[in-house]
């Protein structure tokens, strides 16, 4: 029996839950990324680094809701603060001080954020940041990185998953590939694509569209295609080129923000962008996002300026209280150090196993976020990561699941995420299971 069959045998409760859900919810899931064949596990409980499915199977979780659960599942300090706030009200539709305090805490971590506005999600944060950049520059063009995901808004849902065929275009001038039906051509005609870690490709597009580009949006450390850190000098070059061509620089830190360092990528790499988008960690496990940056840009937002930003749920007391508790009480300087140490231990442990087994895989990481990619060399671009052996990845995925580990988000391009709740024991147990799984795969497939 293979790992896939093991998985099905262990999960009859999830199968039943999926059948029921599929009759009423497309795919039976809330977001396409939650689906995998033949059905995902359905969850009934979670605590710390662990999560339990309908059948009572326990998993060490490294998906952690796609890096959002930085404090660990059901963190007691955050749960307590949510319960306290819920008794006083969940939505006021009027401002309250938890949002101001959280904004101040984010400014303390991100000096580049003079002012910010809250959203519910990362997709809204990036969508509004791009709108603001267009409003500020009176230009329509947007440059993004091939393979980067910034949420599913029309303007940015371009070249997020790129074919390995010639349709992708040459590396120095990738094609803009629209990723969904229902997006009008006009919405993406000003979205242009470059390679990550490739200043020539960026300068080519900046020159070609000189005077038309409002902003370049990128994750300073890419988290699609595993985790792809910036090459030395890349971000400095990006900053210089965006200044030279008079283009606003947006760091999308939805996933890495307050995660790879207290002040995210801006702090870690010492670069000051014009705008920054955040979500995930800043919500302490509740749906919260933000976009912010230079004061004169943020003062273009309604009611101060002409760029509209609305939302019934914006800056509500529930999510801002959870976020404030997370940043102030859970994510202490000491916690970042611990998460970094665990990240180092996990990545080096994985590398050791891979080298011992002579397995065609590589590991890249930035602190507690990392990727195991089934390509022999560490990738520097999404194209290189996309060369991964997807069959090996599938075996790894079902193998780890059937032995009680959710090893990463549910796709070869996802990353693993170590939270404040993970322990040395979790890491050691996971490394033992990984060795088991990779050894079996090697015997069977290589
Ligand atoms: C870098 C980045 N930007 C934006 C988003 C979209 O965020 P959300 O799923 O909260 O809309 C994501 C989601 O994973 C992301 O990783």
Structure, described:
The structure is a single chain. The chain contains 16 helices and 14 strands. The chain is an alpha/beta fold. It has 2 domains: 3-70 and 332-445, Aspartate Aminotransferase, domain 1, CATH 3.90.1150.10; 76-330, Aspartate Aminotransferase, domain 2, CATH 3.40.640. The strands form 3 sheets. A 7-stranded mixed β-sheet has the order 4-10-9-8-7-5-6, with helices on both faces. Helix 4 runs antiparallel to helix 12 (317-330). The chain is globular, with a radius of gyration of 21 Å. The chain starts with a helix and ends with a helix. 52% of the residues are buried. Pyridoxal-5'-phosphate binds next to helix 6. The site of pyridoxal-5'-phosphate (PLP) has 15 residues, from helix 6.
Describe the SSE topology.
Elements (H helix, E strand, L loop, with lengths): L2 H8 L1 H11 L20 E5 L2 E4 L4 E4 L2 H4 L8 H13 L8 H13 L5 E5 L2 H16 L3 E5 L39 H4 L2 E4 L4 H10 L4 E6 L15 H11 L3 E5 L11 H6 L5 E4 L10 E5 L1 H4 L18 H14 L2 H25 L4 E5 L2 E5 L8 H4 L4 H13 L2 E2 L9 E2 L6 H22 L1
Parallel strand pairs: 3-13, 5-6, 5-7, 7-8, 8-9
Antiparallel strand pairs: 1-2, 2-3, 4-10, 9-10, 11-12, 12-14
The chain binds pyridoxal-5'-phosphate.
The site of pyridoxal-5'-phosphate has 15 residues, from helix 6.
């Amino acid at each position: 029996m293979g790992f896939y069959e093991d998985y099905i045998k262990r999960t009859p409760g999830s199968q039943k839950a999926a059948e029921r859900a599929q009759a009423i919810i497309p795919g039976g899931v809330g977001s396409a990324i939650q689906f995998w064949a033949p059905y995902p596990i359905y969850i009934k409980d979670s605590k710390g680094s662990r999560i339990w499915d309908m059948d009572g199977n326990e998993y060490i979780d490294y998906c952690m809701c796609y890096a959002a659960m930085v404090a660990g599942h059901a963190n007691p300090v955050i749960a307590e603060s949510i319960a306290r706030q819920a008794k006083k009200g969940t939505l006021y539709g009027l401002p309250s001080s938890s949002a101001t305090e959280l904004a101040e805490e984010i400014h303390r971590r991100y000096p580049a954020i003079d002012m910010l506005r809250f959203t519910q999600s990362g997709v809204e944060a990036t969508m509004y940041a791009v709108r603001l950049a267009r409003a500020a520059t009176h230009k329509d063009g947007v440059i993004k990185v091939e393979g980067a995901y910034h949420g599913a808004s029309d303007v940015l849902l371009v070249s997020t998953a790129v074919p390995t065929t010639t349709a992708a275009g040459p590396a120095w001038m990738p094609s803009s590939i629209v990723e969904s039906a229902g997006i009008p051509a006009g919405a993406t005609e000003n979205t242009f694509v470059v390679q990550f870690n490739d200043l020539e490709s960026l300068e080519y597009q900046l020159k070609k569209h000189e005077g038309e580009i409002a902003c370049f949006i990128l994750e300073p450390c890419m988290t699609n295609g595993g985790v792809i850190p910036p090459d030395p000098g890349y971000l400095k070059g990006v900053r210089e080129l965006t200044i030279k061509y008079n283009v606003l620089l947006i760091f999308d830190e939805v996933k890495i923000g307050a995660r790879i360092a207290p002040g995210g990528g801006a702090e870690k790499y010492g670069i000051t962008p014009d705008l920054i988008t955040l979500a995930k960690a800043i919500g302490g496990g509740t749906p919260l996002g933000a976009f912010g940056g230079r004061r004169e840009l943020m003062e273009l937002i309604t009611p101060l300026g002409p760029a509209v930003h609305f939302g019934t749920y914006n800056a509500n007391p529930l999510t801002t209280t959870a976020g404030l508790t997370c940043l102030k009480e859970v994510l202490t300087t000491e916690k970042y150090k611990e998460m970094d140490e665990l990240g180092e231990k996990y990545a080096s442990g994985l590398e050791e196993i891979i080298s011992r087994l002579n397995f065609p895989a590589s590991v890249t990481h930035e602190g507690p976020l990392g990727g195991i990619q089934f390509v022999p060399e560490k990738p520097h671009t999404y194209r290189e990561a996309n060369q991964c052996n997807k069959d090996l990845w599938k075996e790894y995925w079902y193998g780890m699941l059937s032995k009680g580990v959710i090893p990463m988000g549910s796709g070869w391009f996802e990353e693993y995420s170590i939270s404040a709740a993970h322990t040395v024991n979790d890491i050691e147990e996971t490394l033992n299971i990984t060795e088991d799984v990779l050894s079996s795969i090697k015997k069977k497939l290589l």
